[in-house]
# Entry
Amino acid sequence: MAEKLTEAARAAALAQLPKWHMSEDRDAIERRLVFRDFGQAFAFMTRVALVAEAMDHHPEWFNVYKTVDILLSTHDVGGLSELDIKLARRIDTFAADFGL
Ligand code: H2B
# Structure
């Protein structure tokens, strides 16, 4: 079972994820990605979906054309856990493949 990150743990984790910011109204992290077109955005989302399913940890996300807004939070603990940090790192790796 995941546990909510302590203040020290989340500060350390966020320092490693400069492209993410804390949500204004949730204990969650967010990143916006703007791709070249819808095909790239959806290819990226497909890769993330497969990893999310394998992790049994799923993003909250919103896609309009080439923009993907992602919010990560662990529902089971009502806030940020190590699972969100792990998924954010994987997402950053995929995004880098698209030059983001
Ligand atoms: N995703 C996220 N983001 N948080 C969760 O707590 C979570 C999840 N729990 N995906 C999983 C699925 C849980 O509902 C199932 C039953 O394992």
The two ends are 32 Å apart (CA to CA).
